[in-house]
Amino acid sequence: MGDCLFCKIVRHEIPASIEYEDDRVLAFNDVNPQAPTHVLIVPKRHIATLSELSVEDDQLVGEIVRRAAAIARARGISAGGFRTVFNTNRDAGQTVFHIHLHLIGGRSLGWPPG
Ligand code: 5GP
Ligand code: ZN
């Protein structure tokens, strides 16, 4: 996906503050953080929305979710609490069409979300 922003970050063509990287997953700090911790965890492979996931991706999604929990632990916000969000399509406010799990925490978070 040549013109996808997050694919460019995955390929290190656009700089990002990288938190974690392995063969399949990249985590980096959101450029416009909504809380003291705001990290995006993405698959390295381009997947546009949750609707494009298949059963073959179950392991990958598990790795992404567990990576969010590990980063929360490492940041010391696990016991206090944190939020993980996949926004999908227009009504949820998805702006980058390469799936990304938002890890948000480090402050008290309101519910329901706006
Ligand atoms: P969405 O609205 O699609 O769920 O979330 C996209 C997120 O990507 C937003 O929180 C936005 O701040 C973040 N973002 C957009 N462009 C960049 C960028 O170039 N670098 C980084 N690190 N984050 C970005
Ligand atoms: Zn992409």
3D architecture notes:
- This protein has 114 residues and is α+β, with helices and mostly antiparallel strands.
- The protein is 25% helix and 22% strand.
- It has three helices and five strands; from the N terminus they run αβββαβαβ.
- The chain has helices at 5-10, 58-75, 89-92, and strands spanning 18-21, 25-29, 37-43, 82-85, 101-105.
- A five-stranded antiparallel β-sheet has the order 1-2-3-5-4, covered by helices on one side.
- β1 and β2 (25-29) form a beta hairpin.
- The longest helix is centred in the middle third of the chain and has 18 residues, at 58-75.
- It is globular, with a radius of gyration of 14 Å.
- The mean pLDDT is 97.
- Bound molecules: guanosine-5'-monophosphate and zinc ion (ZN).
- Residues 1, 4, 6-7, 46, 98 line the site of zinc ion (ZN).
- The site of zinc ion has 6 residues, from α1.
Describe the global form.
Answer: globular
Query: Mean pLDDT, rounded to whole units?
Result: 97
Strand residue content = 15-25%
Total E-strand runs? 5
Question: What is the N-to-C succession of helices and strands?
Answer: HEEEHEHE
SS element count, helices: 3
Uncertain segments: none
| Distinct ligands | guanosine-5'-monophosphate, zinc ion
Biggest β-sheet strands, sense, barrel: 5 strands, antiparallel
Describe, in short, the structure shown.
The chain is α+β, with helices and mostly antiparallel strands. The chain has helices at 5-10, 58-75, 89-92; strands at 18-21, 25-29, 37-43, 82-85, 101-105. Residues 1, 4, 6-7, 46, 98 line the site of zinc ion.
